[in-house]
Design goal:
Strand order of the largest sheet: 1-2-3-4-5-6
Shape: globular
Order of helices and strands: HHEEEHEEHEH
Structural class: alpha+beta
CATH architecture: 3-Layer(aba) Sandwich
Number of domains: 1
C-alpha cells in the first residue's frame, strides 16, 4: 500500500476492497447519527462488528483525529467495535478495540494495537 493510497477515501476504498474477500461488509453512510463507524462487518462466525477507518498523516504519523461523536460512539458501544488505522510512517494498518478509544485519543499510535498488519487484523476479526 503506497502513501498515496493511504490518504483519504482512496485508502478506505482500497482497504474495503481488500477485506471484502474475508467478510461481508456494509458501508455505513449515516448523516443522521454522527459518529457511526464506517463499516459494519459480518464474519463467518455470524457476529456483527463495526470498524472505524482512520489514517495518520506524514506530518503527525502517530496522531489520529477523532470527532467527539466518534469518541462518544465507542464509549457507549464497547463490544465488537474497532478502529483500523493506517500509519503514514510505516504504511501498516493497526487494529484497536473501540473500548480503548480514550487511550487512543491520548496516546495515538503509540498505544499497543490488537493486531498490526493487514493479515494479522484479518486473522483477529475472523475470530470474533
Amino acid at each position: 500500500m503506497s502513501l498515496k493510497e493511504l490518504h483519504g477515501q482512496g485508502w478506505k476504498i482500497g482497504l474495503y476492497s481488500a477485506l471484502l474477500i474475508f467478510f461481508t461488509w456494509t458501508r455505513l453512510e449515516n448523516w443522521a447519527l454522527f459518529g457511526t463507524p464506517d463499516l459494519l462487518g459480518y464474519p463467518p462466525s455470524g457476529n456483527f462488528f463495526t470498524v472505524e477507518l482512520k489514517v495518520s498523516t506524514p506530518k503527525k504519523p502517530y496522531f489520529v483525529r477523532f470527532s467527539p461523536h466518534q469518541i462518544s460512539f465507542h464509549i457507549k458501544h464497547k463490544k465488537n467495535t474497532f478502529v483500523l488505522i493506517a500509519c503514514a510512517l510505516d504504511q501498516l494498518v493497526r487494529l484497536y478495540p473501540g473500548s480503548r478509544i480514550l487511550e487512543l485519543v491520548d496516546s495515538g499510535l503509540k498505544l499497543e494495537p490488537l493486531a498490526c498488519g493487514l493479515d494479522s487484523c484479518v486473522d483477529f476479526l475472523e475470530k470474533i
